Amino acid sequence: MQFPGAITGGVLALLLFFPVPSAQAFSAGADISVHGFIDGRYGIRLQEDRYQRSTSLGEARVQLGLRRDGELVSWQLRTDLVHDEVAQQTDQDFEAGTGPVDLREANLLFFPLPSVDVKLGRQILTWGTGDLLFINDLFPKDWRSFFIGRDVEYLKAPSDALFISFFPAFANIDVAWTPRFDADRYIRGERISYWNPLLGRRAGEDAISDPQLRDRWGHDDELAVRVSKNIASYESAFYTYKGFWKSPVGFNPATLRATFPRLSVYGASLRGGLAGGIATFEAGYYDSRDDRDGTDPAVPNSEWRLLAGYEQQVGHNLSVSVQYYLEAMGDYGGYVNGLPPGSPARNRNRHVLTTRLTRLALSQTLTLSLFVYYSPSDGDGYLRPNINYKLTDAWLLTSGGNLFIGEDDHTFFGQFERNNNLYAGVRYSF
Amino acid sequence: MKRTLMLTIALVLIAGTSALAAPSADEIVTLANQASYYAGEDGRAHVKMTITAADGGERSREFVILRKDLPHDDQKFYVYFEAPADVYKMAFLVWKNVAREDDRWLWLPALNLKKRIAPGDKRTSFVGSDFYYEDVSGRSLDEDRHELIEETATRYVIRNTPKNPSSVEFSHYIVQIDKTTYLPVKAEYFDQSGSVYRVVEALEVGTVQGYPTVIKAAARDLLAGSTTINHFTQIEYDLGLQERIFTERFLRRAPREVTR
Predict the structure, then answer these.
(1) How confident is the model at residue B65 (pLDDT cuts 50, 70, 90)?
(2) ipTM of this model?
(3) Measured between CB atoms, which of B85, B100, B248 is closest to A429?
(4) Band (A30; pLDDT cuts 50, 70, 90)
(5) Cβ contacts (< 8 Å) between B57 and chain A: which residues?
(6) What domains, with CATH codes, occur in chain B?
(7) At what angle are helices B25-37 and B2-17 packed, to 10 degrees?
(8) Using CA atoms in the order A130, A132, A136, A142, what is the torsion angle rounded to 10 degrees?
């Protein structure tokens, strides 16, 4: 594969800043693999929004992945070079993912002991059993990318972390330590309009939220641990997390700024075969450490989150999955009493149902899929239809939509009703 | 080694009795199943798959496949994709269970996600090719009734009729099995009207470490007009693969058995 010289030069420049522990690890230059893609996408809003542009997506990106697998040390670098027509914020920021370089992964993988693997650096982290629903996976998500029609891989934002896996005989233990809090790339008005409770209306680029950041190295850190074990082919896991709410759901009345309150999560999951399909169960207790008695209206209450899912292949090349998800707030009375007068109260229990339909056709070159979230308690929902067509092994055409419906303007999905969009894209992989 | 020994004994017994009577259809398909899917204790091969559509359009996949045999004919497979670029470094893990549904996972490196795949129709395309999952991992012998319908100088011809016809798309299939290697060399699948619509064939057979081995295989979909050729290279048996390779740890971090 030939690359334009400028891009190759850019990648080499990036490599210079990349730590390589020993000359030996770098010696077999021929073993370095280079892969990636060029992706162009365009999307439009389906209705006027006075606080947003009518173009929801307009970008070209080149992703380059370099990787070397060694006996003692492996390393990888995967980065996007982006030209984004829609973004208002174009300053380079590796944390927020804005600017011309979106660094996805830059890490070292090494094996200090036979039963220990260590991955250090920027990496994508995922665990848990939900399908586009997350309870014990508190690694950063990029909801903006998700809602505007980027490839679903961009839902996972990178973590700058130390990830250590231990493999004693009795279980697998994974420990992820993020020395400086990695928030979600949450909805804050930029590109996606949202319900602003202070203004009491939907807001967008006119009122971009500016929360108090948790950005002190080593102090505002996150620790996530998973202990997992397969019992026959049932996958069980226990999780714990100590860090912060991943989006600024708290509020500081003194500064009138949103905050990231402290959060701990304790949970478990189980996944395995059941009646010809796959069943999943996951639960987590969200311990909102800054408001344990549930009386502070500026900090979310503690809550239980539960998820049960089932997936089955029905017939030829068609799979169907359903999930039920619950957020059950503790100390609901305290929450209601603490609400400012006139503020809409949420329900004690938020129920969400999801379904995914995936149909493969034309020798699996055509994928039709529909993912639907529906909340009977909030009276809102979110539809994600998508069509992928592989013209050749290298060329992919894609098109889809992000469609929100809601009875109220302030509910989780209903607040995004003015962000309905359709998008189309083309990708060349190399 | 035990399995090889048993196979040898079975072969000798069958050879010894063949002067008196031909082996039964069940004996033949059992040996054919062993020869096709259980050579050695474990194995590794590099596979280049070329899919040619009716209009001449070509697609290809390249992957490394690891297999380890377990007691009771259970097996574990690790499939590591190298091409095309959009599936580069994806891995597919299968725990084949003879007594119940297989367990299958897909590793998606960009999401760092181990996705469990619902057990499904095994008679669907493997990675978009004309081969089915079942061609790759083997069809359980108990699913069909087997009859020896013909015996030539070099081949046994077996007719296989599904016990549960609604579970498959064919009415029956006829397999020709080489008498010396016990490798199936041709399988023809018949639809309800009795015509052949799908053919799977061994195009080239060699011997690797003493095991008769298919080097090149084709699957043809006569209705769609497409053909897939599998070319196996770097074939090795009895590498001493450890069972721990077939776990999440080595999905996250591809083992050197597939990357070297």
Answers:
(1) very high
(2) 0.88
(3) B85
(4) low
(5) 392
(6) 2-259 (2.50.20.10)
(7) 150
(8) 160
